[in-house]
Amino acid sequence: MDLFTHLILGYLISFAAVGDNAPYLLAGAIAGGLPDADVLLWPLAKRFPILRHHGITHSVFGVTVVALVGGFVVFPYFVGGTGWLFFVVMELAGIGHMLGDAFTHFSVAPLLPFSERPLELDADRAINFVVLAVSLTGILLLGWERSRVSTEMFLATVYGLMAFYVAYIGLRLVARWSAGRFRRRNPEFTHVAPSANPLKWLLLYERREDGRLRTGHAEFQLGRGLTGPIRRIDVPLVAPADAVGPVRTRDAALERSYPLARTTGSVLDQTYHFAEVVSMSDGSWGVAWYSLEFAAFGRSAAVRVRIAPDGSLSAKSGWYHPGRIPPAWA
Length: 330
Prior knowledge:
Blueprint: H1 3-18, H2 22-33, H3 42-45, H4 60-79, H5 83-102, H6 129-145, H7 151-185, E1 191-194, E2 200-209, E3 212-221, E4 225-226, E5 231-236, H8 250-264, H9 267-270, E6 273-279, E7 285-296, E8 299-307, E9 313-320
Antiparallel strand pairs: 1-2, 2-3, 3-4, 3-5, 6-7, 7-8, 8-9
Helix pairs in contact: 1-2, 1-5, 1-6, 2-5, 4-5, 6-7
């Protein structure tokens, strides 16, 4: 979940707890974003893995330590107020941050340092640009409205934002439950992946065995089920020793391109992925291997491989539009 959404959710959670009280709302907003300050600890994370991103700061223990220090030491000293109220809003906002990240496809371990057991609902992408835009707009709007508009209008904005997040989270959870229920009835699929659209999900399977990648995916839509065929790929993880000379078929283009694509873009080993192939008029081939999870504004993180007429390969990584391989792709 993006930082702006964490900040405004911390603010709204604090508002629900203590009402319109500026010092406590400020503390809650800061606590809502503070766990992501662990990115500053990355030089230490290799030596102390518990300090990694989504590590100890994204646990009940870490959140409570921050709330105790902030609630009873920092905020009462600088702005005054009641320590236990600061503690409550910071604790709630910090737990909200932890659950917000667990809501996405990036897991947290809420019981660190006592347990590494992950929590991951897989109900949304880590960064959803629609939600990010609403969050950023909400932060700017609430900041501008304070002391400039009537109390009624300000409260309408606050409650409107609360309603949006409650409805959005509810829709995501219902759709995730529905997609998961469908997957359990169809055991060929092993994973459910969210898309940017809360109504559309990907059902996937991936197996790496006998030196090959066997994967497939289909689109699931809430209320409709599968909306298309299962798209499958079976390719070697390492280029075959006899993979030389011109490529004649689509399957050969996939097999020849995948080992190079893997070494060109690490995203393929980190996420579920798929490929599209186009045959060029000059006898060359274009293959786009794209991530099914790292995507935004219709584009996906991808590796594009061109296979020349003589069978030589070249590759380039970037952001690519699935389904729009240009006919003269170089």
